[in-house]
Amino acid sequence: LGPTLGRLIIGVFSQLKETPQSDRDPKACLHKALDDEEARRSSLQASFEAEIMPTLMAVGLKIRALNKGWSLTGTDTTFQSHRLAFYIDDPAQFRRYLESIDPETVTSAQKRGLTTLLQSLCTQLRRDYNVQQADDRLLALVSVAESISSNYTRLGLGSNRFNGYVEAIQGRYLRDLVLAEQLELDKPYDQGPGFTLRWHRDCVPSFLEQKWSSVLDVLVALANNPKASAIYAQASETAKAANKSAIRELMSWHSSDGKVRPPEHEDFLKTLRRVELRLTEF
Fold first, then answer.
1. Nearest CA to 148 among 131, 136, 166, 128?
2. What span, in angstroms and rounded, lies between the C-alpha atoms of 127 and 149?
């Protein structure tokens, strides 16, 4: 987004500089800059696809946008997404390609490409695939997941994360695993990388209640699936640790005058206490 915004700003100021002051219309200049940027990005994407598509089709792959598009606040236009990723278009063809690779002769370029592909597939499973409504890309991946796992291991390119997804697919808890990862329930609380599970630090009470309800829903789903016992054990432990930490933080927070906690903190505590009680069930 940074480089894109920079080009838009330069485009607007270039047009303003070249236009007589009496004819200047900043909004029209912005729309022109947006159109130019979209045309530039579409041209680059088309060129890239033309160059790489024959190779991808030969091994059963394609590339396409991961989401619908983007827009800039203050404009009425939605633009095509240019965030691209590899996906499996022909599972049978891709399986044949993997099986044809000889571990003794596999090239460094093939290893880099296969590693990048696996990373892309893991990211899509975690963030972009619709695991609730059987996204077509997900179905294609599911149909060849075991083959990918076994062949990558054969080539010395195994991935614990992807293998975990394959196990989840077989155990019918992929959706719950993905949701657990999105909520950072799949790792110890003190190893979580960011804001997730620490919502009380910057949110409104209704948001906090909504997010912790999601955590409880995931725990219920995992608890009801015996094949998900490993991820359930970690998720339950992480949720309890996060809840206790949040309560401790809120109990120690005070208003600027040091006398009382702000009113919303009391609402936060009520929500977290209710969650604490529910967590005793897991």
1. 166
2. 20
Question: In angstroms, rounded to a whole number, what is the distance separating the alpha carbons of residues 258 and 247?
Answer: 18
CA–CA separation, 228 vs 179, rounded Å?
13
pLDDT band at 254, cuts 50/70/90? low
Helices and strands: H and E segment counts in the chain: 10, 4
> CA angle at residue 165 from 162 to 167, to 5 degrees?
115
Q: What is the DSSP string of 157-214?
A: ---HHHHHHHHHHHHT-HHHHHHHHHTT-SS-GGG--SSTT-GGGS--HHHHHHHHHH
Tell which residue, 201, 218, 208, 221, has the closest CA to residue 262: 201
**Token couple for 176:** 């719950």
Contacts of 107 (CB under 8 A, 6+ apart): none
pLDDT tens across 12-67, in order?
878 777 777 777 777 777 778 877 877 887 888 888 888 888 989 999 998 877 66
Instruction: Fill in the DSSP letter of residue 52.
Output: H
**69 sits in which H/E element:** strand 69-71
Q: Which of 255, 158, 234, 148 is nearest to 192 (CA)?
A: 234
Rounded to 10 deg, the angle between the 205-223 and 174-182 helix axes is 150
d(CA 237, CA 42): 47
Rounded to whole angstroms, how far apart are CA atoms 254 and 15? Answer: 52
